[in-house]
Design goal:
single chain; 164 residues; alpha+beta; five-stranded mixed beta sheet; 5 helices
Length: 164
């Protein structure tokens, strides 16, 4: 067994894991953070996407021991003080989900996209979520949700309090 320590959603979490344990399984089975979904086990669908040190990553392709010492954010860690993250709110407002299975990974990929590209075009949004599959929607509501979130984040960042 290997000992690991990582910060998950702002809290230091420690555990003993088999060296072959995938991060997605550590999150779901040991930490009971089931918002990170297992969709394909082959890194194709993106349902398992989390943020590792602020960058989106598919947790089904990363061993838990590789994440040792990292800062991991799951869908459960986005909302702050009961307020949805602007991307979560965008998905709510624009009906950017249907069954919801892909939604956590899609949202975390969008958070990463908007960090890098605060005002993306529709083409950039589609490219930014290309590693996340949705089998229910036609993606247009997802694109609208990310555009909504970009506008919210832009407004929040240009507010007088944000400039201090």
């Amino acid at each position: 067994m290997a000992q690991i320590s990582l910060t998950v959603n702002g809290k230091v979490r420690k555990g003993s894991v088999e060296p072959r344990t995938l991060l997605v399984h550590f999150l779901r089975e040991e930490l009971l953070l089931t918002g990170t979904h297992v969709g394909c086990d082959t890194s194709q669908c993106g349902a398992c996407t989390v943020l590792i040190d602020g960058r989106s990553a598919k947790s089904c392709t990363i061993l838990a021991v590789q994440a040792d010492g990292s800062n991991v954010t799951t869908i459960e860690g986005l909302a702050q003080n009961g307020d949805l993250h602007p991307v979560q709110q965008g998905f709510w407002d624009e009906h950017g989900l249907q069954c919801g299975y892909c939604t956590p990974g899609m949202i975390l990929s969008a958070v990463n996209l908007l960090k890098d590209t605060p005002n993306p075009t529709e083409q950039q949004i589609r490219a930014g979520i290309a590693g996340n599959f949705c089998r229910c929607t036609g993606y247009q509501h997802i694109v609208n949700a990310i555009q909504n979130a970009a506008a919210r984040l832009g407004a929040r960042n240009s507010a007088p309090d944000a400039r201090r």
